[in-house]
Amino acid sequence: MANDLPAWFERLSKSQPLDVTSLLRLIALSKEHLANQPTLLDLPAPITICGDIHGQFSDLLTLMTLDIGQRILFLGDFVDRGSHSVETISFLLVRMKYNGDTRVYKAFMDVFDYLPLGTSSVQLILTHMYIPGALVNNQLLAIHGGLSPAIHYLDQIRMINRVMEIPSDGAFADLVWSDPEPKTNGFHLVSRPPTIRILKAI
């Protein structure tokens, strides 16, 4: 499977999507790689941190051409709004594995809702990608969502078993789904359809 990575990377760099079989193999390879990573990665600076991409594949390719160094930390949503979600997620997964290190940090929950691939295999694998968080220079906590009132020490994050479906509540869910709210002091629960509840905090 690893022998296919250079060809996949070259194809995606030219904005040519992978076929379903290749994409499934890529996802399975990436899932195995990510599952073996610690829940909280310790990363040195300098590193470029990138927010939401939302399927804007052309923007992603432009980012790759900028002089920002080789190390990029992706935190935001990769899919769901742009018209090239499959290409975006495929490119990042290939880049992660092809470069030999973890460059994708993000919860993939609900990504399958936007893939134009009507297969249960894609849906099942993408909901269990086991994406870790990161601590940069032992100073900056980088996670997809936000803080949790249940987390007081970094070791509590390190102990989270992320090789599971993200629950609807608790510390793990907070780290993935919580959002900042400028007008709120402390934490409070709000509803996010259909069933997810998140914590908001300043």
From TrEMBL:
In terms of Gene3D superfamilies, this protein maps to: 3.60.21.10
Q: Which residues form the Serine/threonine specific protein phosphatases domain?
A: 18-200
Top-level division of the source organism's lineage? Eukaryota
Q: GO: which molecular function terms? A: calmodulin-dependent protein phosphatase activity
Picking any one GO biological process from the record gives: calcineurin-mediated signaling
Return the Pfam families for the record: Metallophos
Q: What is this protein called?
A: Serine/threonine specific protein phosphatases domain-containing protein
Q: Which organism is it from?
A: Aphanomyces astaci (Crayfish plague agent)
